[in-house]
Amino acid sequence: MKRHLLEAADLDRDDATLVLDTAAQIDQALAGREVKKLPTLRGRTVVNLFYEDSTRTRISFELAAKRLSADVINFSAKGSSVSKGESLKDTALTLEAMGADGVVVRHSASGAPHRLAHWVRGSVVNAGDGTHEHPTQALLDAYTIRQRLGRLDGVRVTIVGDVLHSRVARSNVGLLHTLGAQVTLVAPPTLLPVGVGSWPAEVGYDLDAALPKSDVVMMLRVQAERMNASFFPSAREYSRRYGLDARRMAALPDEAIVMHPGPMNRGMEIAAEVADSVRSTIVEQVANGVSTRMAVLYLLLGGSPQ
Ligand code: NCD
To answer: 55, 57, 126, 220: which to mutate for ligand 1, most atoms within 8 A of CB?
Structure first.
């Protein structure tokens, strides 16, 4: 494994499989235990550095580090010296001086975790940078697919919606490809990034045509906060063409599953009855996020102290 986890491409097939297998072992070790804690990272310090809003990912990383018995410091830009204009570099040097072994960072600027990795001695884990990457989300998604379908190799995954603004889509395309899955992106042309043709994925515009050929359909949130222009005529029109409702879900093969990284816009990209259906893995994804992140922290920080 590399020292940092900045993007899906940092993991080759063996590394990615090792993370998933380790997460499975952790799940097994903790299942049925009253005290859901392992002593593995006792004495290590993990700093969660969140410059951008987050619910699931922040809580998930915090819980993951605590369940490994690390000391955890949660730092959010609001209420810190960042709001006084302190630069990322100065913040990094402060963390360095305090001896952080691992830094988990979410930032609105694509590439911020890469910069940080140059300034600190500990391992940097990207928890989402701008529209770039979110590798631990891709790992927990791969873990969830493998858990539900029993394999990743050859699995047909259709990722639907706002690909343009989605770091989840970018990381998933890379990691799923590494793990042997076949990825198709379905989106309105305005919500596909320039250069998508060079990604290891098929591209289509017709959701109804893609669904019968999907083992997994992953719905993306329409990221209104990152849109400074009108990318589609109206919310109603978007949902009519690209939303997953019960009628569309019925076109999926019998065993197929429905995923969403959250937060959802219920009624927009996904209907409530789909989100709450038995095909939906949305709640499992959240639970699997903790074990997958424990596996990442364990593999990156678990070695002997330097
Ligand atoms: C995603 C994110 O922040 O990139 N959410 C998450 O981490 N669970 C997706 C999103 O915001 O739509």
So the answer is: 57
Atom of ligand 1 nearest to the CA of 166: 4
Q: Report CA(128)–ligand 1 centroid distance (Å).
A: 8
Which atom of ligand 1 is nearest to 289's Cα? 8
Q: Which domains does the chain have, with CATH numbers?
A: 8-134+286-301 (3.40.50.1370), 135-281 (3.40.50.1370)
The model carries a pTM of 0.96
The per-residue pLDDT for range 221-279, each reduced to its tens digit, is 999 888 877 889 889 999 999 999 999 999 999 999 999 999 999 999 999 999 999 99
Contact 56 CB / ligand 1 (< 6 Å):
yes
DSSP string, the chain: --S-B-SGGG--HHHHHHHHHHHHHHHHHHTT-SS----TTTT-EEEEEESS--SHHHHHHHHHHHHTT-EEEEEESTTSGGGGT--HHHHHHHHHHHT-SEEEEEESSTTHHHHHHHH-SSEEEEEEETTTB-HHHHHHHHHHHHHHHS--TT-EEEEES--TT-HHHHHHHHHHHHTT-EEEEE--GGGS-TTGGGSSSEEES-HHHHGGG-SEEEEPP--GGG-SS--SS-HHHHHHHH-B-HHHHTTS-TT-EEE--S---BTTTB-HHHHTSTTB-HHHHHHHHHHHHHHHHHHHH-S---
